[in-house]
Design brief:
seven-stranded mixed beta sheet; alpha/beta
């Protein structure tokens, strides 16, 4: 079997996220906080009990903490690459939060062992997204639920466009600087390929305004979300390219008050592990009313 392409330097990603966590704590990642709140609200309308829960790469543990008091939850596992992110996991007054140091591209989870798997803003960084989705579906009990959010490919489109134009003007070529995140239109089919039932994919565009491009880049460093592409340029970013990028950004993507816009496309996906009780589409030819009869009745 062919190995998936190496898109991200995941060791570099983890070191940057860990440094950002140690220097700034969870309060600096406002985007993750926003997403965790939204996921908790989505989950609150699902009238089901989920005894065994896995939070996959949540980093701050905010989502796990939000569902601690959910009725019927007996154990919550938090998976991280580095045990430093798992500080504070342990017995609580309700469900225990159990630490799990592992790689989401090679999950050490027994088949059909989890009732609910959650992943906030993490799976966009894996090199083999189809493989990770298959492992997640395999880890769910029948009729178990998977709920995740990812950054979509429209994220930071303003910064990407500005960098490309500046480098095209001032250098002999362009270097990839913004990650090629997943496309919304592909996520439904990826869930189906992984074996999920009732797959759903939708999006929300979060627009954040900044005083300058440099303020945006400072926030990205606080999130540990700077360039970790495997084929990134190792040469230092030239000052003239950086300043020209800032000029283009201000010229093309600023509001009337001079503040620039930064777009984050939040892709939300969900799917269920197959179970015989789930609603299924009708088989072709099984309809009881002919389409021409519907048209006739509607026109009469």
């Amino acid at each position: 079997m062919a190995r998936p392409p190496l898109i991200f330097d995941r060791a570099l990603l983890q070191s940057r996220r860990l440094r950002a966590w140690q220097q700034h704590g969870k309060d600096a990642d406002f985007l993750l906080s926003h997403v965790c709140q939204d996921m908790a609200e989505r989950l609150s309308i699902v009238l089901r009990e989920f005894p065994m829960v896995l939070e996959l790469g949540g980093h701050t543990g905010q989502l796990a903490e939000m569902i601690l008091g959910r009725e019927g939850t007996s154990q919550i596992f938090r998976q991280e690459h580095n045990c430093a992110f798992l500080h504070g996991a342990g017995q609580t007054n309700s469900a225990p939060i159990l630490p799990l140091v592992a790689d989401e591209e090679a999950l050490p989870i027994a088949p059909q062992s989890m009732d609910l798997i959650l992943s906030p803003l993490n799976l966009q960084w894996v090199n083999d997204l189809p493989g990770s989705l298959f492992q997640i579906r395999n880890s769910l009990k029948p009729d178990g639920l998977f709920l995740a959010t990812l950054l979509g490919n429209e994220s930071l489109k303003e910064l990407r466009t500005s960098f490309l134009q500046a480098e095209a003007e001032l250098t002999d070529g362009v270097s990839p600087r913004i990650a090629p995140f997943p496309e919304l239109k592909d996520m439904g089919s990826l869930l189906q390929r992984a074996g999920f039932s009732l797959p759903v994919a939708d999006q929300d565009i979060v627009t954040v305004r900044y005083g300058s491009m440099f303020s945006l880049m400072a926030d990205l460093r606080k999130m540990g979300a700077t360039n970790c592409l495997a084929d990134r340029s190792r040469a230092p970013l030239r000052r003239d390219v950086l300043m020209r990028t800032a000029e283009i950004y201000l010229s093309d993507f600023a509001d009337s008050d001079g503040k620039i816009r930064a777009s984050f496309q939040i892709v939300s996906i969900s799917g269920w592990a197959p179970h015989e009780s789930q609603q299924k589409p009708l088989k072709p030819g099984s309809a009881q009313t002919h389409f021409s009869k519907i048209l006739k009745d509607k026109s009469s």
